[in-house]
Amino acid sequence: MPTAIALRQGQPQAYLGHNPLGRLAVAFLLLLMTTMAVTGLVRAGTDIYFPPFGSWVQGYIAADQVPPSNLKPYDETQVDAEKFQAMKAFKSPFGKVHLYTAYTLLAMLLLHIAAVVVTEKKRVGQSFRPCSPGKKYLSGRPQE
Description:
Oligomer: single chain
Strand content: under 5%
Shape: rod-shaped
Radius of gyration: 24 Å
Distance between the termini: 14 Å
Number of helices: 4
Low-confidence stretches: none
Structural class: mainly alpha
Number of domains: 1
Order of helices and strands: HHHH
Number of strands: 0
């Protein structure tokens, strides 16, 4: 019987770890956090020349005869204007993805917490309480 139907009928199934919907939520949260990390690294490299991409960006946008290490974040005086505009066009989508991923991550975290609270009330201690000691006590055989 699917987890949601069993829960509504008052016959929740026991799982060793997360239930299937919880596993999907955790995988989605991990995907969102990975997306945040990658887009954040790109933006940090293009905005403030932070590693691992910052030195490459500095070398790319530095004007002729200007050492890349002389470039300062948000200062357009010693850069090649054409390359700087190309870099701005490149980094813009990463900023949008980073922002919307942050909103989605926040919404998913709140939804995940709400689901844990609802499941905790219906199952009486089978969702949140095992988190602290790391032990889950089951009355029957768990689902894999």
